[in-house]
């Protein structure tokens, strides 16, 4: 009897955690993991690359370091479509591959919300390549300032005030002294603005905690424009609405971090979805397809306490990876599937390398202690996806003030 074929699409937090869990079970299966790159990257630290604080190698490692070659094959390729009924996946270079069980964990994409100019002028932060482009773009604008003396070249507009936005701004403000020295531009002319449609910033945190974090950024010179939906982007401006009136802010660097959606392959494959997220069954399978598990940013899991889907985080993705692997094992052994359950341990948002705010296990943390917790959480994720050797080389141990 041939071995069961398990295909994992994506090597982010969810996909790589599912792989590690499956490999540890020593099941009689063949595993194929498909990823467009040869490496895994920590998406929770993309803001460090975008701000120029670290290079891409600091937040990434090769997938082959966690693969058991006797059981698992890595295909470096791009997914075109999942043929749900035929149980095949079409890849850009490889062609068709078949599966008995599929773990769909392709991650997220930037969401434009249909706003004019976003696709042309907004700089998203969704992967290593886009994060590097943000850093390179800003440096190019700074270098042009002395030729033009146009203040717009020193203006950075960050669209949206979610986690990525705040963490990027926090790290960028710390990098500014080095940037202005390198490009010989006046720091007093550098302007960082954050435009947010919601009237409340960081609503997922206690109000006093959120106020602490935002005030830290204001003290560093950041200008927050809130309650102002963005209407259009141009090559050098963000047009927004304030009190029914259209206004604009000039900026040659426009970072687009208003929100994300699941992979476009979800819609292309014909799954029932909303913003490319599938409301999965309680065992994480796609409705009507009991051999296809959808996890990570492409899945929606209802939180019964709020009657809304859980926000897509690395924390929930890691748990889903374990659960999907457990349920494939249950299917192979003809045992009952496990319903997915999740309890968030907390949330931490950095505002620079040694400053953060967070709610962890019911406790509010701010400043240096919260930044330490951010690094502890990151190191824990590294252990779950990469293992002890990866933590030894990529871990966050710079617990300094």
Which of globular, elongated, flat, extended, rod-shaped describes the shape? globular
| Mean pLDDT metric | 95
Class by alpha and beta content: alpha/beta
Helix content: 25-40%
Order of adjacent strands in the largest pleated sheet: 5-2-1-9-22-21
Q: Under CATH, the topology of the largest domain is which?
A: FAD/NAD(P)-binding domain
Strand content: 25-35%
Number of H- or I-type helical stretches:
10
CATH architecture of the largest domain: 3-Layer(bba) Sandwich
- Straight-line N-to-C gap: 59 Å
Total number of beta strands: 28
Unreliable segments of 5+ consecutive residues: none
Can you characterise this structure?
The model has no long low-confidence stretch (mean pLDDT 95). The chain starts with a strand and ends in a 7-residue tail after the last helix. The protein is globular and about 70 Å long. The protein is of the alpha/beta class and 401 residues long. It folds into two domains: 4-36 and 77-110 and 261-344, FAD/NAD(P)-binding domain; 118-258, 3-Layer(bba) Sandwich (FAD/NAD(P)-binding domain). The protein has a six-stranded mixed sheet with strand order 5-2-1-9-22-21, covered by helices on one side. The chain has ten helices and 28 strands.
